[in-house]
Amino acid sequence: MSAPVQELTRKDFVSDQDVRWCPGCGDYAILGAVQNVLPKLGVPKENIVMVSGIGCSSRFPFYVNTFGFHTVHGRAPTVASGLRCANPDLDVWMITGDGDGFSIGGNHMMHLLRRNLRIKVLLFNNRIYGLTKGQYSPTSPPGLKTKSTPFGSIDTPVNPCSVALGSEASFVARSSDKSVKHLQGVLEAAHAHKGTAFVEILQNCVIFNDGTWDHVTGKEVRDDSQLLLEHGKPLRFGANKGIRMNAFEPEVVTLGENGVTEADLMVHDAHRTDPSYAFLLSRLGFQGRDTPLPMGVLRQVERPCYEDALTAETKAATDKAAAKGIGLADMYRGFGKVSTWDVG
Amino acid sequence: MTSTDIIDKPSSKPVQTLERVVIRFAGDSGDGVQTIGDQLGLSSAVAGNDIATLPDFPAEIRAPAGTVYGVSGFQLQFGADATLTAGDEPDVLVAFNPAALKRHLEDLPEGRVLIVDPENFSDRNLKLASYAENPLLDDSLKAWQLHSVPITKLTVETLKALDITGKAAKRCANFFALGLTYWIYSRPLEPTLRFLNDKFKNKPEVIAANTAALKAGYHYGETAEAFQCRYEVPAAENAEPGTYRSVNGNQALAMGLVTAANKANLELFFAGYPITPASDLLHNLASLRALGAKTFQAEDEIAAIGVAIGASYGGALGITASSGPGIALKGEFMGLANAVELPLIVVNVQRGGPSTGLPTKMEQSDLLQALHGRHGESPLPVVAASSPADAFEAGIEAARIAITWRTPVMLLCDGNIAFGTEPWKIPDPDTIPAIDANKQGPTENFRPYSRDDKLARPWAVPGTPGLEHRVGGIEREDGTGNISYDPDNHQYMTDLRAAKVAKVADSYAPLTIDGEQNGKLLVLTWGSPFGPVSTAVRRVHSAGASVGHVHLRNLWPLPNDLGEILGRFERVLVPENNTGQLSTLIRAKYLIDAKGFNQVRGLPFKVSDVEAAILAAVEEQA
């Protein structure tokens, strides 16, 4: 039973623990954004649970004055899933990183997304292993020189949003630690979503991968390198650029050049049932493509949640049993389907 | 004609009384050997005998027909008194094909009954079983009472009147064989007819065909000249009065866990990943939704325990189950459960190892893994079931400890318990004690790592106002639960976790000693050797040997009174289906010269082997 919702403020969500991230870490901005959003949600504090794996980002729950569970490396989706199934009234947020969520925990991420449990997944993507002091991660760009790749990474990175979409995600969004207002808007949209809400947050590691997203988030370049998505609006960016479909390839066009007008541009539709369009979006700006990186909600569709089905199925079965007065004694007798015999 | 007609008709043949009978069926994996084995067990139990069964099947689902490695077996013992094992050696072997004969004949002592179906001894099947000559046509089987019964042929002829294909008719041959067995041993047909009617409710033609085959087999015994005599095994007299049913260990455990959750007023939440021989727990619990059991088939073993921990954190009784390889994968999460001190049951249905090992065979080789198979100092209580029916009690005991002490508990079963069946006295649910989950209610200034008189911490479920707190794998400060790297705190918390688990032993019932209360030899067991070892100890004890037997339900912490009992005997013998794990533990903990008697053959002990080991230990010169 929860008390009536009181007016909560940001301060209510600040824990008494010292924040131990490095000065200048992008995590501070994300923590601030979450603490700004939580009071607006109308959810009693005791119903909010932060579940994390292991890594710098996964220390997050210790700094938020709600329930928090710092679990094991890569496995936060499993604990969060069990929690939602056992108690579907809870507001569950999962904090993970590129190594936690897409390397050691990649399998669980895929299954969480396809089951569509109502959990907000915040993926802090700094393209590096920070807590273990600087090894390349599954999202690191090719050629990145780190302690474990002194000659430059020879690995092919994953695209978190593409993988999420390939895993049947019903909500996929992207934001960054450098645009807190935008991030807050995305977090509110994620919270409103009924299903797993996957949010990739571009985040800077000031110690081991400083400036890894500067080509996207830098003040001088961001207008031209980010495609801010708005449902129902044409895909426009920069002063006068946009995205047009050319056969099966999206291409960058300049409005006013070669007769291109806004009517030629693709119009963002986050609610398409088929994920192909969202997948196409997720490929923009990935790995050296000269297209801008989409920011905002790539996809948001409604589909059933696993825990709702489990709850409904269990309730239907137990209600039926209760109506018939079926209990333990009936179970012991195999509900009348097994043979019994009497002795003495 | 009903089965009553058959049974009521007086037999023209003499009836001899036997104390106990051991029957083994063997055939192709698809021959339905397990099904008729179960039925014979059920029928014998309903007839009032005590029974124990041992299925023996290959890991392959339908290995190529006729091959030796595709042979599936089922052994059953029914007796007029306590029957704790499926028997050392069969009195009767029913071998459906040459491969089954090849595989099992060596276990059948000479002079005993061998029933075969000659139609299945085709050139092709003989070749598959590497027989150069048909053993039915030479003298090679003359040492046994051989009955060549045209089982398949007679089944097909019987079913000609029904509108089914020849292939479908052949599939009923197992019920013909079962019917013959029922005649020979004077078993009632009703339980099997009832089974057929339930199982094939929507397939009346299958009910009709199998019923006809069963009755034809029964009639055959009466009319065939080869069978000159039938037998009866009187009802067991020492069984406790009550209503009984037959259970296997995975069924009993599922019901025990549901009962425990009910008695603690908790939701049962089971998460598992398919693995032999533990999958049936997932199946059984999934079929118990009506009693509130929620089940979750996870993407892997690690996810299964993570989901169970998440459910416990959310206030449910989280349970996961696996076998050795899967338990190894769950190790890291067991460490977390130990650190955050949440109730959790981890069931290990042990099988032969290491690695894939013997997936369908029993072994007890995960005891030390259960005790020590985690990183760091992470002691957890370990409980073991001793027989199929006992798995019910073991499940309740594991839940009681997990809930009361907010700790992960390892519950050990094995393939023998999981698949074996025995009669189970149906309990009165009202006599089963309640378990106090004692969840923390709303409060102020909450301290998540405070302690009660059992040293357990509060179960603080999200959603409860005022309890907001953070937990995790990083060492927690005493009282607050905040992250702490303080050396003294880690020492204190490590000692505290060990002391908490040690206190569980204060809640055990006193140990009981079967046989001598002190003297020459104490036989100490855990797990499924309970059956053969109890039988062996009773035999040698009644023959005058100075032997006592203690069976352990709780393997960690060890019972407080065990040390004193060990001291009452000159010697200690520990029979185990491993290379000596409990004996190692006993030697280390009590500094005594405990000896092991160890076998890892994928099979339970034979009573005669244990008897010999006990006598050797008693007579050994000091």
Map the helices and strands.
The complex is a heterodimer of chains A (344) and B (622).
Chain A: H1 27-37, E1 48-52, E2 67-70, H2 76-86, E3 91-97, H3 98-104, H4 106-115, E4 119-125, H5 160-166, E5 171-176, H6 180-192, E6 197-202, H7 214-217, H8 222-225, E7 226-228, E8 236-237, E9 241-246, E10 249-254, H9 276-283, E11 293-300, H10 306-324, H11 328-332, E12 340-343
Parallel strand pairs in A: 1-2, 1-3, 3-4, 4-6, 5-6, 7-11
Antiparallel strand pairs in A: 5-11, 8-9, 9-10
Chain B: H1 3-8, E1 15-17, E2 20-28, H2 33-46, E3 50-56, E4 71-79, E5 92-95, H3 98-104, E6 113-116, H4 123-128, E7 145-148, H5 151-158, H6 166-170, H7 173-184, H8 190-199, H9 204-223, E8 230-232, E9 242-248, H10 249-263, E10 268-272, H11 279-286, E11 294-297, H12 301-313, E12 317-322, H13 324-329, H14 331-340, E13 344-350, H15 367-372, E14 382-384, H16 390-405, E15 408-414, H17 415-419, E16 421-425, E17 470-472, H18 487-503, E18 514-515, E19 519-526, H19 530-542, E20 547-552, E21 554-556, H20 562-566, E22 569-576, H21 581-590, E23 595-598, H22 607-619
Parallel strand pairs in B: 1-8, 2-5, 5-6, 6-7, 10-11, 10-12, 12-13, 13-15, 14-15, 19-20, 19-22, 22-23
Antiparallel strand pairs in B: 2-4, 3-4, 9-16, 14-21, 18-20
